[in-house]
Amino acid sequence: MSALPDPADGVSRARRHIAAGAGTVMVLGGAGTGKTTFLHDLRKTGGRQVFLAPTGVAALQLGGQTIHSFLGIPPRILNPDEVKPRVQVRRLVKRLERLVIDEISMVRADLLDTVDRTLRLARDVDAPFGGVQMVLVGDFFQLPPVVPFAEQEMLARMGYGGPFAFDAKVLAERALARVPFTRVHRQSDPAFIAMLGALRSGLGLRDAMEALNEACVRPHRPGVQPVLLTPTNARADAYNQRGLAALGGEERVFSGLLKGEFGLEGDRLPVPERLALKPGARVMALRNDPSRRWVNGSVGTIIGIGAHAALVRLDAGPTVEIESFTWERLRYGWDEAAGRIEAQVVGTYSQLPLAPAWAMTMHKAQGLTLEDVRIDFESGAFAAGQAYVALSRARSLEGLSLVRPVRPSDIRFDRRVAAFVAAFEAATD
């Protein structure tokens, strides 16, 4: 067994494995450890690579395509003999060198095996993933794959030990280069980082919950209106509707514009298609500003509304005018003239990149860094990793408050995940 790696060396180690042609590289790290930055840097290296995600919203944030749409995989369990890549899939993946999957924690084992079989058949190469280099990025302690009750028994009958991507049969056929990202960039307080680490892994959980409750079950710090995180859409929507209704003044509705193919396969749009605003409304920016005046997750208050823009006084920044933004849905294709894989725009959605910010769901908050967060667990977190996702959005203990104490029942985690991640970090190459 090798010594645990230097936390600062995770990114360079991942790059070395990729450059050396490792067949499968898995990068795992908790919230705020730099996985998104790593993906952005990897994109800049160029080459015949594609970036995929398990859901439409995740693909949109990644600037890529969904696994299902790229490979033409129907959204159901497939038997191996049902995998029949279409002609256009065959043409594209034969030229593919690297396939990157983000949010690997949400990818089911059977889907990863279907990816493997699709690539083998499309490339006529009977090797794991058809010889394509795979880079799998995410955190199994965060949101898990969705497995309807009716399909749980079916997966067991198919020989799966569980629903997670690490249960995929293909991963037993190829050496896995393991790269943990362990240095936390989002928080700087060692005590808070330790609490979050305990809540993520389940080790030292009782002490961490006691410390967190002692520090954070209180009214939020004065003079600041935090974003409230809650488990369900219904609860978040109710908070936002009450917040808007309590304001005087005239309501202005901005309507989103959809063009081409922009279905998100059941996911919500990145910003509401009907966005109602008033002066005084609390809003969150959901895109980075090219001039870096605000970032995805910046919170502020509407102080003026124009025909196609809103004037927002940011809580941590200047007063800025935020105009309509266009999200692009991409589809990868082969550019014969350029001799490379290109992302082609197949649909767009235009709307002000703002969302009501009195409240939002824990799921929607994944990936965000928030200066001031208040958490309402209401009747309890209902998915493994949900509480950790919510608590780890906060940059500091000072900016975090809880409506009620965290209970042991809120901290759901899978023991098989804990065992896998512990072995992953201990057996790092």
Automatic annotation (TrEMBL):
Gene3D superfamilies: 2.30.30.940, P-loop containing nucleotide triphosphate hydrolases
Xref: SUPFAM superfamilies: P-loop containing nucleoside triphosphate hydrolases
InterPro entries in the record: DNA_helicase_pif1-like_DEAD, P-loop_NTPase, PIF1_helicase
GO molecular function: DNA helicase activity
Keyword annotations from UniProtKB, A to Z: ATP-binding, Helicase, Hydrolase, Nucleotide-binding
GO biological process: DNA repair; telomere maintenance
Domain DNA helicase Pif1-like DEAD-box helicase: 22-153
Pfam families reported in the protein's UniProt record: PIF1 (PF05970)
Segment forming the signal sequence: none
PANTHER family, alphabetized: ATP-DEPENDENT DNA HELICASE (PTHR47642:SF5)
Protein name: Helicase-like protein
